[in-house]
Design a protein that fits this description.
single chain, 437 residues, alpha/beta, Rossmann fold, two-stranded parallel ribbon, 12 strands, 11% strand
């Protein structure tokens, strides 16, 4: 969302980004948030409460509480914000809001927007027993998706499950949008984009990704210096770059399960044994809040401590894009969040996928079965299996994965260059925005 906001600012549009108070506080503490947008007079931040207590973890399985809470408290706050924005606009301080862009899971502004005569843009979604049966009811996915590849909130016994019903409601609202902004590119997901277009005939899909590299390309075209900006809830540990500098090329597997996924201590130990026993060097991001029920603890087996000292480094957070681009990194062990997936695709790094929830389940399947740039190890946390897969992605099938990954990286970079599909679609999107003003 920050990449998109900066792209829109560079395109001459006024942008207000709406954050929860919690998110805003974390960004001010740990991210280069203020400096990144300081030169854009057309950018501002607005905040509202997400309605959760200060000590709520907002991670792991509890992350869905944010969606449900904002569904209850977000609407009235958003209405007050919009009324005050319109009052400011009357005085000429800032143009009136002419378009809203929302994440598909957070549709609480829609009733307010309809009431006030606004338009919006968003995204979309889809239960199970025999997990390896194919899903035949999603057009274009008949030979790709198994039941285990669907998001976990569809794997319920009761159709009245609260989370499932919330997702269904969010999905229905997607059809009210006049367009879909999608962080992908046509060569990567052309058949899927075609299906989205058929499913939502009244909507215009704008695939303008990969957003993070598209932003860099726009900055270069305008003679601006592109620099690394953190948009993270966590303080980045740059010391890992110096450690990577001391490692041979393509020798390290980078391990990170993102900013939301949590592990049990048993899962942590299975991963740890797998990494140490693989004999490969590893850089592993272990957040302070990533272990359910507390930290790693003091009772760590000697073989893990010694193996990590010999071949590994563990940090609380890392500058991920810089790490993925480093010459010593040979593969990415990831939770398959879309930001991580698209960053890896752009750089051409093979992936080993252990998805946690939501779209990650589908993303990991595409990595292994459609794009064939890595392996999918979902629904399993066995040290022997993971050890074998680490060796496979780093050694046995490395050349095969690398060839396909580099080809995909070339396609990603062509998409954002002048005349490329994402470049053309961004121009269409900017013209749409300007026509609504």
């Amino acid at each position: 969302m920050f990449n998109l906001a900066e792209i829109l600012c560079l395109s001459g549009l006024h942008v207000t980004i709406l954050l929860s108070d919690y998110t805003h506080h974390r960004l001010l503490r740990h991210a280069s948030f203020d400096s990144r947008f300081s030169s854009y007079t057309s950018f501002r931040v607005a905040t509202i409460s997400d309605g959760l207590p200060d000590d709520h973890p907002r991670s792991g399985s509890r992350v869905v509480d944010i969606v449900q809470s904002l569904g209850e408290v977000g609407g009235p706050q958003f209405r007050r914000l919009m009324v005050s924005s319109d009052a400011m606009s009357d005085g000429g301080a800032r143009p009136r809001v002419s378009c809203l862009i929302m994440d598909g899971m957070l549709s609480f502004p829609i009733p307010v927007a309809e009431e006030m005569g606004k338009n919006e843009d968003k995204l979309t979604f889809w239960k199970s027993k025999e997990m390896d049966l194919m899903v035949t009811s999603v057009p274009g996915m008949e030979k790709i998706l198994r039941r285990r590849d669907l998001p976990s909130f569809f794997r319920v016994e009761d159709a009245n499950d609260v989370v499932l019903q919330s997702i269904i409601e969010q999905s229905k609202r997607t059809r009210q949008a006049v367009g879909l902004i999608i962080n992908t590119f046509e060569d990567l997901e052309g058949p899927i984009l075609d299906q989205i277009g058929k499913h939502n005939a009244n909507q215009n899909p704008y695939s303008i990704g990969p957003l993070h590299t598209h932003l860099k390309e726009l900055q270069k075209a305008k003679g601006m210096e592109s620099s690394h900006h953190s948009s993270s809830f966590w303080k980045e540990d740059d010391s890992c770059i110096a450690w990577l500098d001391s490692q041979p090329p393509d020798s390290v597997i980078y391990v990170s399960f993102g900013s939301v996924a949590t592990l049990t201590r048993d899962e942590l130990m299975e991963f740890w044994y797998a990494l140490v026993n693989s004999g490969k060097k590893f850089l592993w991001v272990v957040r302070a809040d990533s272990i359910v029920g507390g930290g790693i603890g003091n009772e760590i087996p000697v073989e893990l401590e010694e193996g990590t000292k010999l071949r590994g480094l563990m940090v609380e957070w890392a500058p991920q894009e810089l790490v993925l681009r480093h010459k010593s990194v040979g593969a990415f062990f990831t939770h398959s969040g879309w930001n991580s997936t698209i960053e890896s695709i752009v750089i051409g790094v093979p992936m080993l996928c252990w998805p946690y929830f939501a779209d990650q389940m589908v993303n990991s399947r595409f990595v292994s079965e459609v794009w064939k740039i890595g392996l999918d190890v979902k629904d399993s946390c066995d040290r022997l299996l993971i050890e074998s897969m680490v060796r496979e992605v780093m050694e046995v099938k490395r050349d095969e994965f690398l060839e396909k990954a580099r080809g995909m990286a070339n396609m990603a970079n062509k998409a954002i260059c002048e005349g490329g599909s994402s470049h053309v679609n961004l121009n269409r999107l900017i013209q749409f925005f300007k026509s609504t003003a």
